[in-house]
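Let's sit down with a protein and look at its sequence and fold side by side. Once you have written the record down, we can walk along the chain together.
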Amino acid sequence: MPRFAANLTMMFNEVPFLDRFDAAAKAGFSAVEFLFPYEHPADEVGSRLKGAGLTQALFNLPPGDWNAGEKGFAALPERFEDLKNSLQTALPYAQATGVKRLHLMAGIADRGDRKAVEAFYKSVAWAAEFFAPHGLDVVIEPINARNVPGYFLNDFLFARDLITELKIPNLKLQFDIYHCQIIHGDVTMRLREMMPIIGHIQIASIPSRNEPDGEELNYPFLFAELDRLGYGGFVGCEYNPRGNTTDGLGWFKPYAGAKS
């Protein structure tokens, strides 16, 4: 049975961020993820997490100025010092939460630019090697161009080839089913092919990015497929609830309480 992690950036927005840990636990989740915790002290985030009895599945490394449209800087040659500083910023949060994987964002850059490709390879390797002694995986996630125009990493095949080429043990693929369906389609076959390098999975309905209970994909089939493939990681619920979060959790009831 898949182990689902509520995404506290997108879900339970009915309450302030730090109160969403308890809300997720009360709804039956045993794990959570979120985009960025950096507006709150690391100790407070860790305290809320542990107080709710939850496991931290994932969060993102600092992306730069998110409100100004920055989406990371791993592929930006002139921002390598910012990249290195971001790893130091994230480490106390990783230690406070006990998370085992961190998402490194690529940024807005042209994948046809050789310097951007070289910068991304360098940043990915640097980040993975920085976190390895701390027992942390680094995951990279292809993101579709409809949601984030101009995002450097917008191809699962490029991500697969990079991970395969670098051969860094703690470098993994973040496989967001929503993004894969929009970019490539053929989700099941891509899951089967890429499972050996997948470190985290995320879900949402396509095309609306709401609860995974309808539209293009048969999620009950995909959840069963994850079991057939032996996937033991977390499935992050990175979707926008149509209304009140708890009102839309009918899809989750058969899985509530699965141990993390």
